[in-house]
Amino acid sequence: MKLKSTVATRNTRQKDAIRAAFVETGRPLSPEEVLSYAHRTAADVSIATVYRNLKMLVEEGWLIAVQLPGEPPRYELSGKEHHHHFLCDDCRKVYELEGCVPAIELKLPRGFRAFSHDLLLHGICPACIPKHA
Amino acid sequence: MKLKSTVATRNTRQKDAIRAAFVETGRPLSPEEVLSYAHRTAADVSIATVYRNLKMLVEEGWLIAVQLPGEPPRYELSGKEHHHHFLCDDCRKVYELEGCVPAIELKLPRGFRAFSHDLLLHGICPACIPKHA
DNA sequence: CTGCGTGCAAATGCTTTGCAAAGAC
DNA sequence: GTCTTTGCAAAGCATTTGCACGCAG
Fold it and tell me: Measured between beta carbons, which residues in chain A are less than 8 angstroms from residue B113?
């Protein structure tokens, strides 16, 4: 019955750098974005390690995967309440938005039963608006 | 200046089978779904041909790509007005929904500018509800 | 020390592409 | 007959995994 009693997971320079990326940026990140941020503090992190750690952090409940239409997956800190996202069509950065539209139960044909929904807003983020002046 | 004056595209058994899949099912289809339907009338269609034709049909404006979070792309007949989709969490089929939620402009932080949105409802479709009784 | 975590490279799985042969017109 | 389209197999990409070594505890 091998209980993973104590440690089981070790702290490594790479793992710390990966966690720090989320804490410091405060927004959903793609694997490639995580790699870029992690490189700042741990120059030798490999993309394989990023993928492995993202998966582990999701399994242990520290992160959740954020799927967006036509985009590579992003990951964000878990534990937040229901919210949606904003994708900048220029720089491709994703931001979290508070709240949700009210009557989301739009005309559902008879016989269908909806349990949840995903909403994504597209546009330009503050950092990119100058480029489109 | 090679004008593609006349023909340029030829009608083939495979292409007809692919177009028929959309006309007959009336819902967004993934490449694999298209392949399955096409096999009914053209037993030897290859997946490469499906991908090539989907791309061509999008380029000539007959189809549009429908991207959904965490899902392979679907394709649907173009020319419809603004609408959203429903994904059955059981059979993975996608359906088109009419209309849109009204005040979609939820709390957007200052400095952001939104131009469009994507909405997907998740649930169970009529065909799958019996399985969940 | 022990063995988990890492980098590298090979292996996937989905989609695209090169090429010779089949087929549309 | 000419030139597009197809099927097959190889090539691409993003992501996952096997393996031997390095490092945390």
Answer: 123-124, 129
Angle formed by the axes of helices B47-59 and B13-25, to 10°? 70
Across the interface, whether the CB atoms of B113 and A123 are under 8 A apart is answered yes
Q: What is the pLDDT of residues B22-57, one digit of tens each?
A: 999 999 999 999 999 999 999 889 999 999 999 999
Using a CB-CB cut-off of 8 Å, the residues of chain A touching B108 are 86, 97, 121
CB of B55 nearer than 7 A to strand C? yes
Query: How far apart are the C-alpha atoms of A102 and A84, rounded to whole Å?
Result: 13
Q: How far is CA B35 from the centre of its chain?
A: 13
Nearest 5 degrees, angle CA B5-CA B6-CA B10? 130
Query: Which domains, ranges and CATH numbers included, belong to chain A?
Result: 1-77 (1.10.10.10), 81-133 (3.30.1490.190)
